[in-house]
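Reopening this ticket.

The earlier resolution said the output was attached, but the attachment link was broken on my side. Pasting everything inline this time so it's all in one place.
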Amino acid sequence: MKHITFKLSLVTLFVILTIFSIDFLNNQFSYSNGEYDNGDYDIEETIEKSGDAGTVFAADKQMINRDWIEKGVEGQLDHIEFQLGTAKETILASRGDAIDTGFYEGGEFFRYDDATFFINPETDRLVAIALSTEAYELDAAKLKEVFGNPDVSERNEMEGLWMYEYYLDKYSLMFEAEEEDGRILFAWLRERL
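Inline output:
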C-alpha cells in the first residue's frame, strides 16, 4: 500500500510540474505573424515584417511611434497618465512615495520606476517628464525613421549629452544620447521656454 501511495504521489507531482512547465513556456513564447516568436525582437526585422516604417519595436515590446508626437502635442508622454500642467498633489496622491526626490535646475523632481516628474516650485505644476529609454535600443537613425529630422540636434554641454529635440507647439519632445548617433538614453517631454 505504501508503494501505491508513493507512486501516486510521484505521478501527481509529475502532472503538476508538467502543467507549470507548459504554462511557463506559453508565457515565454507567443504566436505572431504566422510564426512562433520568443519575444526577442530584431528592430529592423520587425519593421520589415510589419511593413510599417513608422514604428520601432524594442526588446521589451514597447514601441516608439508617431503616437509620441500626437500625445506630446497634448502634453502627454507615451504611457504616462499625467499631462504637463498636472498639479503636484494629484501626482503624489496617485503615485504615492517616490523612489527619489530632490531638486534639478531650480525645480523639484519625483522619480518613480517608470518616469521622473519635474515640478515648477512657483506653480506646483508638472513642467517636464523624463523616461529612461535604454530598453528601447534606440539610436538617432531609428529616431529619424519614425519622427523625421529633429528641429535641434546638438551637444548639451551642461549635461554632457547629445540631444535631439522635436518642437510640438508649446511642448518639446527631447531625446538624449551619450554621443551623436549613439544609443538614446532618455526621452523628455517638457514645456518649451
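Reporter confirms the inline version is readable. The chain has five helices and twelve strands. The first helix runs from residue 2 to 28.
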